[in-house]
Amino acid sequence: MAFDTAWPEEDLEAVSECPCCGCSERSLAYSEVQDWAFHTAPGRWQYWSCGGCSALYLSLRPTPASIGNAYARYYTHGGVQPGGQLQHFKQRLRNEYWSYRLKTSLAPRLGLPRWAAWVTAAMEPWIAEPFGLRQWVQLPKGLLIDVGCGNGDKLMLASQLGWQAQGIELDASAVQAAQAQGLRVEQGGYELLAHYKGQVDCVVCSHVLEHVHQPLDMLELLLASLKPQGVLLLSVPNAASFLRNHYGENWRGLEAPRHLAIPDGAWLMAHLRAQGFECEQVPSYPLETAMESERMWRRGVSLLASDLQAAKALLHRLPKPSMAEQDVTQLVCMRAPA
Predict the structure, then answer these.
(1) CA separation for the pair 161, 315 (Å, rounded)
(2) 284: part of which helix (H) or strand (E)?
(3) Are domains 9-71 and 129-335 of this chain identical in fold?
(4) pLDDT for 13
């Protein structure tokens, strides 16, 4: 299906209630949104703002049977692409910085001597720390499951740090790419978590919740999979993002039609607390989203140097966002003491 064609009517379903809270009150937030993120999925889409929890959600939306057509060229579906010398150097540089910063060792790295520590300290403004990496270093090691693990990049990091890491991934090509790296990955949806009730030390759900038709069902299985002292690492775009308020329909967090429902971060934390969990929110790094939103605003397919320049200028100009306005809601969740 071509980008500028319509999504087949027989493969659409109406959503009368918010997938996050069940409220039927809503207002139209954006209309005629297209797949400006990848320029591959057909259709023009409407996002609604929930009057109960402030989530954004699609209606009409692709049916569960047809949604796979929106992922034909999705970025997590391929294998690890061979890079040139510059890419290899950048990866070693990042691993060196994270190894030094978190007092661990991630390969491949530069292997700088201790007297050269000032080099890694100078990297801080330029290298974002992946959400979850700090927790994987600090937490007691055990069974870790990454739900929607894609081609396994995070599984590889967790394995290096001593975790018994395995993934769950719906897409067959992504599973094949991960397994080709020697990683343990099951093909299937989040429903496979039902087989791990009460067994997992750390469950990771990174930018997956917004992709599923029944997010509350997924949250229930994520929480039920944990051991009594288990940890949920959850990240999802924030409907209250300060960048969404600036870019509107060009905000990278929308990604129609793959992002079916985007929760409000404050509501999500309140929901998890109501389930008996304590949540610590970790600030997110907004530069990548701002760059991609600049590209989408001009309807570009590839990033340009001007997108980076515009994003940096915007972030310098805008007030620092509050925790409720973070572009991505990143939560570390554990059961509250009885």
Answers:
(1) 33
(2) none
(3) no
(4) 98
Residue 227, strand partner residues? none
Concatenate the DSSP letters of all residues of 135-168 into one string: HHHHSPP-EEEEET-TTSHHHHHHHHTT-EEEEE
What is the DSSP-derived secondary structure letter of residue 108?
S
Task: Give the Å distances, CA to CA, from 331 to 96, 206, 225, 235, 236.
Answer: 26, 10, 17, 6, 9
Alpha helices in 140-261 (DSSP H): 153-160, 172-179, 215-224, 242-247
Asked if residue 127 lies in contact with residue 150, where contact means CB atoms within 8 angstroms, the answer is: no
DSSP 248: G
pLDDT (tens digit, 9 = 90+) per residue, 232-276? Answer: 999 999 999 999 999 999 999 999 999 999 999 999 999 999 999
Class of domain 129-335: alpha beta
For strand 200-206 and strand 143-147, is the pairing parallel, antiparallel, or unpaired?
A: parallel
From residue 34, give the alpha-carbon distance in Å to each of 84, 249, 321. Answer: 33, 9, 27
- The Cα–Cα gap between 190 and 216 comes to 12
Average pLDDT per run of 10 along the chain, which is 338 residues long?
86 98 98 95 97 98 95 60 60 70 69 65 69 90 96 89 94 92 94 97 97 97 97 98 98 97 98 96 95 97 96 96 98 92
30 in Cβ contact with 254 (< 8 Å): yes
Residue 76: predicted pLDDT: 52
Q: Show the tokens assigned to 168.
A: 């769950």
How far apart are alpha carbons 304 and 196 in whole angstroms? 44
Asked if the peptide bond before residue 263 counts as cis, ω within 30 degrees of 0, the response is no
Tokens representing 14 are 């109406």
Residue at token pair 């057909």: 42
Cβ neighbours of residue 111 closer than 8 Å, sequence gap 6 or more: 96
Can you give the residue ranges of every domain in the chain?
9-71, 129-335
In whole angstroms, what is the distance from residue 206 CA to residue 105 CA?
A: 23
Say if domain 9-71 classifies as CATH 2.20.25.
Answer: yes
Question: What pLDDT does 81 receive?
Answer: 47
> Which residues, in sequence order, are bridge partners of residue 203?
145, 232
